[in-house]
From TrEMBL, chain A:
Lineage: superkingdom: Eukaryota
Keyword check for RNA-binding: no
InterPro entries noted in UniProt: AH/BAR_dom_sf, PX_dom, PX_dom_sf, SNX5/SNX6/SNX32, Vps5_C
UniProt keyword tRNA processing, yes or no: no
Protein purpose: Involved in several stages of intracellular trafficking.
Family membership: Belongs to the sorting nexin family.
Any one GO CC term of the record: cytosol
Protein name in UniProt: Sorting nexin
UniProtKB/TrEMBL annotation, chain B:
Domain of life where this protein originates: Eukaryota
Organism ancestry: Eukaryota, Metazoa, Chordata, Craniata, Vertebrata
Name under which the protein is recorded: Sorting nexin-2
Signal peptide segment: none
Biased composition (Basic and acidic residues): 1-18
């Protein structure tokens, strides 16, 4: 059921039976996560119809980077690379818990430990799914699904790290760095000829900073919910201790109250995790997707700059009456590249908007429905306890 | 809208291109059948005079926590007898002295106080039903600069014949409350009565108010203090003995009150208090009492455990308050951010949905803020009050020890004097002998008094503890129920606000 929630960030994936990809399981060894990438295909380009390979996070990054650096895909939105698995938060909390063990009862410590293990598991599941979605975006794309490197990634049953090193030597990561730092400047600097792209540019630049902010704020909100759930654990445990020491008729009341907070904290925990998956993760995913769209605009802007430079070079050549055919050919190529990027880019950006709207809608509705459900559950729990206390 | 970029169209199940005019949030198939439950009418906002305490004062005959059933398993059989009507029969505390002395009713401290005996008063309780409600309100800054102070209006509503009128109000300042407590403590603590402690001083908090900072934190401070003062007064008058104390009556009724100067933190009286407290602490360590009454030992242990647990619970609830406030702030920030995102969004329906989300989150952040206040004023302050009350409870146990020590000291002195007298018998010093005999007579009186004091304080403490425990259970139950109801209301409101999204338009 958890799988469903994250996949809804991109609802139109993995429907094409000719190439189905999933990550059925993964192993966590200290800091390294080993994903099992499973492929089922009817395509003849693959050697087998059903196979699995082990992959690390770095392999996914390699695949993403090679796609970004492929000229032919310059006009496409390359699905954002999955973020590195980050277990820092639960690990730190586990450490703090260990330090504070002496101050809690055994029962309290056990519950807190269970909570942290659940958190650890949640991070783990999230990272599996975000890697899975990356691959599924590729397999659903008419052009990218046919990429040779993608096929190698899926099929090559040896360690990919050798290939990864070669790629690094070839490109040196230079291109990527340039894209990241220069895109804003270049995009705003270029004189736009096409209304559509002019609007997209304004929209994406602004939207990116806003969605980045919203993601951060949503995360803080989710974390506060989680902290409250943890407080309820401590409150429940102490009430239980009070109940144990109490010899009067009040004992049952204290036990009931302790029990209430224990159940209540589970509901709060679910509120936190639902909000996390359906709001924070949704925003985070589309923030990265918007960045990918911006990268497309950047590549197109660079192509436009190249085209304008080629025009200037042609004029110069005509002036000097030297190397005119080369200059003409260069200019023609630049124009062709630019036109191709523009045409492809327009399609990609339009479908991107559609995808975004559908995903937001689905997640918001699901989140609202879940929050209503949780609120109702809470009310039932609370009223049950109130009745019991009043009747006693 | 433009068509998709892919060659193969995806399954059309979820993918439904929204027209610009269409709503993002349609009526869902799973609309709630029933309306959100009606909202609790009770207003628990802090604008009212703290948690409504009316229900606390009903003498509830059906209360399962009535004296007869409480703690039967633990106590000596005499205990039940103590709580029945009529004059107290002889108690037999098993204490070191061999004689059994029947405590005389109304015998102690008539010279110090003007009220009638304690025992008689307690019987009266059944007659004049306990009906009094005190509220502390309208904090008003009086004066300027460092001499400024907050004046609070203390309103009493009552039908008890004890008071001249049924409704009246006076103006009091914080040091007046401290003065009242100081008087009550000096009169009643050392004979075993659990005098509710006054709210704590706060030099930092008051300085801000004096300096004239009209900001959120100083307003919160004043409200916190107002609420604490109200609870303090209510706890004080709930005590049947304290209620009838002339200082209490004067505090509630008289328009002018002599200024209590010795309550200032840095006054000479204040310093003297600190010194005395330190001396007491040292003394406590050196008193080794032969506790032959298991009840006292058990109770002391019980209160020690209770103290530890309540402090722990208090800390957890304080953490909850803090996190709830954080949640409120974070939700508000998210709401603003979502609104900005909605403005930036170019798809009309999604833009509107984001704006709606922002509106809802803004309402919810206010709900979280209200809940944080309930967390604090109902749950946290309740625990804080009881942590402080337990200090007073432990104090009366300590006073009992001191009383025992005083009695023992007199006894030892008497023993010495008798030995000395015996020696003097063999000398020919008739004056000295007479002097010795006189001293012995005096000391014998002191020893008897000492024993009586000890028995009286023991008896009083038993009653007080029983009353305290009963009150504590009732108090907790009432306030916890209120607190849970506040949580219910918050959840219902959250529900209402989120459902609103679906009924938009």
């Amino acid at each position: 059921q958890r799988k469903e929630s994250l996949r809804s960030v991109s609802v139109d994936l993995n429907h094409d039976a000719s190439l189905l990809i999933d990550i059925p399981d993964a192993l966590c060894e200290r800091d390294k996560v080993k994903f099992t990438v499973h492929t089922k295909t009817t395509l003849s380009s693959f050697q087998k119809p059903d196979f699995s390979v082990p992959r690390q996070h770095e392999d996914f990054i390699w695949l993403h980077d090679t796609l970004v650096e492929t000229e032919d895909y310059a006009g496409l939105i390359i699905p954002p690379a999955p973020p590195k698995p980050d277990f820092d938060s639960p690990r730190e909390k586990m450490h703090k818990l260990g330090e504070g063990e002496a101050t809690m009862t055994k029962e309290e410590y056990t519950k807190m430990k269970q909570e942290l293990e659940a958190e650890y598991l949640a991070v783990f599941k999230k990272t599996v799914q975000v890697h899975e979605i990356f691959l599924q975006r590729l397999s659903s794309h008419p052009v990218l699904s046919k990429d040779r490197n993608f096929q190698i990634f899926l099929e090559y049953d040896q360690d990919l790290s050798v290939r990864r090193k070669n790629a690094k030597e070839m490109f040196g990561g230079f291109f990527k760095n340039m894209v990241k730092s220069a895109d804003e400047v270049l995009i705003s600097g270029v004189k736009e000829v096409d209304d559509f792209f002019e609007q997209e540019k304004t929209f994406l630049l602004d939207y990116y900073s806003k969605i980045k902010d919203s993601t951060a704020k949503a995360e803080k909100m989710t974390r506060a919910h989680k902290n409250i759930a943890d407080d309820y654990i401590h409150i429940s445990a102490t009430l239980n201790s009070l109940a144990a020491d109490d010899m009067t008729a009040n004992k049952k009341n204290l036990e009931k109250l302790s029990d209430l907070f224990e159940k209540f904290r589970k509901v709060e925990g679910r509120v936190a995790s639902d909000q996390d998956l359906k709001l924070t993760e949704l925003l985070r995913y589309y923030m990265r997707d918007i960045q990918a769209a911006k990268d497309l605009l950047y590549r197109r802007a660079r192509a436009l700059a190249d085209y304008e430079n080629s025009n200037k070079a042609l004029d110069k050549a005509r002036l000097k009456s030297k190397d005119i055919p080369q200059a003409e050919e260069h200019q023609r190529q630049c124009l062709q590249k630019f036109d191709k990027l523009s045409e492809s880019g327009k399609k990609e950006l339009t479908s991107f908007k559609g995808r975004r709207v559908v995903a937001f809608r689905k997640n918001f509705i699901e989140m609202a429905e879940l929050e209503i459900k949780h609120a109702k559950n809470s009310v039932t729990l609370l009223q049950g306890c109130i009745e019991l206390l009043k009747s006693n | 809208m433009a068509d998709t970029a892919r060659d193969a169209p995806p399954e059309q199940t979820d993918f439904h291109e929204l027209e610009d005019g269409e709503e993002l949030f349609p009526e869902p198939a799973t609309t709630q059948e029933s309306q959100p439950a009606s909202l609790a009418a009770e207003d628990i906002s802090t604008n009212s005079n703290g948690p409504k305490q009316d229900s606390l004062f009903d003498d509830d005959p059906e209360d399962l926590f009535a004296e007869a059933t409480e703690e039967v398993s633990l106590d000596s059989p005499e205990r039940d007898v103590l709580l029945s009507d009529g004059p107290s029969p002889a108690i037999t505390p098993i204490t070191p002295p061999t004689s059994v002395i029947t405590p005389r009713i109304g015998h102690t401290h008539d010279d110090m106080f003007t009220h009638s005996s304690f025992d008689e008063i307690e019987e009266e309780e059944g007659g004049d039903s306990f009906d009094i409600h005190i509220s502390v309100s309208d904090p008003e800054k009086v004066g300027d600069g460092m001499n400024a102070y907050m004046a609070y209006k203390v309103t009493t509503k009552t039908s008890m014949s004890l008071f001249k009128r049924s409704e009246f109000a006076v103006k009091r300042r914080f040091s007046d409350f401290l003065g009242l407590h100081s008087k009550l403590a000096s009169k009643y603590l050392h004979i075993g009565y659990i005098v509710p402690p006054a709210p704590e001083k706060s030099i930092v908090g008051m300085t801000k108010v004096k300096v004239g900072k009209e900001d959120q934190s100083s307003n919160e401070f004043v409200e916190k203090r107002r609420s604490a003062l109200e609870r303090y007064l209510m706890r004080t008058v709930k005590h049947p003995i304290l209620l009838k104390d002339p200082d209490v009556l004067q505090f509630l009724e008289s328009s002018e009150l002599p200024r209590a100067v010795s309550t200032q933190a840095l006054s000479s009286a204040g310093l003297l208090r600190m010194v005395n407290k330190a001396a007491d602490a040292v003394n406590k360590m050196t008193i080794k009492m032969n506790e032959s009454d298991a009840w006292f030992e058990e109770k002391q242990q019980h209160f020690e455990n209770l103290d530890v647990q309540l402090r722990k619970l208090h800390t957890s609830v304080e953490s909850l308050v803090c996190h709830r406030k954080e949640l409120s702030v974070n939700t508000a920030q998210f709401a603003k951010s979502a609104a900005m995102l909605g403005n930036s969004e170019d798809h009309t329906a999604l833009s509107r949905a984001l704006s709606q989300l922002a509106e809802v989150e803004e309402k919810i952040d206010q709900l979280h803020q209200d809940q944080a206040n309930a967390d604090f004023y109902l749950f946290s302050e309740l625990l804080g009050d009881y942590v402080r009350l337990l200090t007073a409870v432990k104090g009366v146990f300590d006073h009992r020890m001191k009383t025992w020590q005083k009695w023992q000291d007199s006894q030892m002195l008497l023993q010495k004097k008798r030995e000395a007298e015996a020696k003097l018998q063999f000398t020919n010093k008739p004056d000295k002998l007479q002097q010795a005999k006189d001293e012995i007579k005096e000391l014998e009186g002191k020893v008897q008094q000492g024993e009586r004091d000890f028995e009286q304080i023991s008896k009083t403490i038993r009653k007080e503890v029983s009353r305290f425990e009963k009150e504590r259970v009732k108090d907790f139950k009432t306030i916890i129920i209120k607190y849970l109801e506040s949580l219910v209301q918050t959840q219902q409101q959250v529900n209402k606000n989120i459902s609103y999204i679906f009924h938009y338009n």
